[in-house]
């Protein structure tokens, strides 16, 4: 083990407000960073801790009233008083307690504080391995059975920080950050880890066609997609197969949506997007009760007299029905909708998930929020019903073969699905609240977490947050998180790219990282197929494109 570098000693503090440490004269205050990790050596425990603030202090305020100026004798005076009369100070938040004897005990939450003058040391790589685990997924050799995956490194250290993928997929999770901070690349990293570890099966609603095949980076380069990295394991479905083929992306199946597959619940989700009144939404439920699966087709076929007759017969409002018909013509006019469709296309997609295949659904030219929300809701509702039935079957038989596969559903623009009104009516709110009960969870990606219902946010297991500027969004990220006041300053100090704060169920404590690069080194680490396998995949892709 490498000997730890001593930084200073604890001088004051409390369990609630955190600790203060005085820096040793040999330790440079300019080398200390908010978000840096340290070890406090108590008498019975070691405290794995986070620097939340760097401060300047003085033993006597009079020293500061007539400060020495740079140059000449004053510079010598400044060096004399530095570290004695003036000194650096660290605000430290203990995160975990570890037994001093490495062979004993597990990580414990912090319930006490170390004594005065306990030494503070810089954390070393073996400290991080002890806390965050060792990457068992990347590299050609798999280590043990536990599924830890490296997400990046601390800001000022070259040591891996891992997430526990088994814990990650058990609950719904969120990736947040303002536009341009790399949310989709964070999602790619996690999805690669989940696929490589076989921790769960994934359904990705790919609004901007970024996950299946090549995507453009902020710097203008290209990175590989999930299908290229995991040929044979990842399938690409598309609402717009022509768009996919123009980009050179082989499509495993085209997906159409029948008007008979759209339910009143889907209209409730689209209320804001279509600017519908609550009365119009209620009318959709009345139509569903009368015409069952054909309700939308019947509505679009009605003339003025038919609308009046239905309103009179069912106690509906003619104006609301007319408005509903007018707004839903947009849905009927979408290029991927047909008057009637069997369950075969969506059924085949779900069968692929049941078989352990990961599915990326591309939207092609249908990138508007209306199309995205409609399709995602229709498919997810069917998946939830099936997974719920599977879970109930498993609870009855208790046969491990009946246990549903753990499923992670990835959605972008999450606040559209999970705002306070939609979260109480739609399947996404149900999944987020039920967490692991039915083996289906969400991975939500959003730049406006403040738009997500607070009850849903409180159920988000792991939050990976890039830079946010809006105070409401920052407050939302820390909903239900203890010690949020100390973490706010850490989040505010992030760079705009390739840095993130991870906190929650999949990590033992909050941690700021430089995120792993999505490059050739990463491809090799997760076991990108050899040249012959890639050649065979290219041949298969060409056959699919032109065959």
- CATH architectural designation of the largest domain: 3-Layer(aba) Sandwich
The value of Rg in angstroms is: 28 Å
Number of domains: 3
Strand content range: 15-25%
Main structural class: alpha/beta
Total number of beta strands: 23
**Numbering strands along the chain, what is their spatial order in the largest sheet?**
9-8-23-22-21-10-20-19-11-18-14-15
Using the coordinates above, name the CATH class of the largest domain: Alpha Beta
CATH fold assignment of the largest domain: Rossmann fold
Report the CATH superfamily of the largest domain. P-loop containing nucleotide triphosphate hydrolases
Distance separating the two termini: 58 Å
Shape annotation: elongated
Average pLDDT score: 88
Q: What helical percentage do the residues reach? A: 25-40%
Number of helices: 22
Unreliable stretches covering 5 or more consecutive residues = none
Give the biggest sheet. 12 strands, mixed
